[in-house]
Amino acid sequence: MVFHKIAPDIHWVGALDFDRRLFDELIPLPDGTSYNSYLIKGSEKTALIDTVDPSKEFDLVENLVKLKVDRIDYLVINHAEQDHSGSLPMILEFFPNAKVVTNEKCRDLLIALLHVPPDVFHIVKDGDTLSLGDRTLQFHLTPWTHWPETQITFLREDQILFPCDLFGFHMASSDLFMADDAVSLRSAKRYYAEIMMPFRNSIKGYIDKVRALSPKMIAPSHGPIQKNPSFMLDAYSDWVSDTVKNEVVLPYVSMHGSTQKMVDHFTAALIARGIVVKPFNLTRTDIGELALSLVDAATVVMATPTVLFGPHPQIVYATYLANALRPKTRYASVIGSYGWGGKSAETIVSMLDHLKVEVLEPVLVKGLPDEACMQALDRLADEILKKHQEAGIV
Ligand code: FEO
Asked: Structural domains in the chain?
């Protein structure tokens, strides 16, 4: 493996995972990911910030060996999820005198998840500092920047922020530093959608706190290091804001073509009204792309056939996901076809209880869509346009 020097006596010692294609057995990783771990040598003490996924623990050990690290005083754990903490037991075997520096909630999770011995911890509270001699670590508790125990660490003298999951993104890259370009921004937005969007309201409060620290560099625990913190902070300010765009996300499934005809007509109707529409055939969709589309869209419309009296299971999955991700979507509706009855619209609407959406009149048709059905879809498109105009986004 490789290690990189970020600044004098500060090294990236993490692991690149070019091959990983799924995270949490849920999130597709088209660009792999990295698990970033950072070694900071102060004049008196040495700290390691986060570890790596246990599947890559020997990469971390190898990097430490190559750097001739013979002592670690502090193992700072910003987040208990195993992709960052999972190598902690092995690192503690190599450095048995090290103290695990984290907050109380994280300690409890590390004991539960990894059976870390309770006597190895040095517990920090919000705003606490820890001296490495000529350098100072400063800790800020930032609950719900993925889990309830998450914290960020700031290296005061060098003004480097180590926020773990927050502000990172899934990308394995041989480049140590991120390019401030559209590719990085898209990857970061997708990661925000998949990981951070449910915690939008918590994150809103942290952005100004981070800006007040005036970081010169953001060193997250996934993806390249950011030399231009404003690039990511400005993007996050936009994503977490209440501003929505003139967009409709249209996840759909069609079994025998009826719902497909409705989706085709409805898509054309929205385009004709100047509304951006993003249809997703769920049988062929990368759910990360679907999540990404939900970040800004004002409206989501689920399109489903009827299976055993209810919506198609793929639509149920997408609806569950949209509800769990809690996008700032303002309007929702359902379109689709049925054979002899069913409660598809009611079921889907009942599953959106985490979203503060106004439900627009669903359009459901028995069998093949007819002219009356197409006119109803046109009326729904009119209603969406009206709502978007009232919201001032057209
Ligand atoms: Fe990258 Fe929440 O772990």
From this structure: 4-240 (3.60.15.10), 245-385 (3.40.50.360)
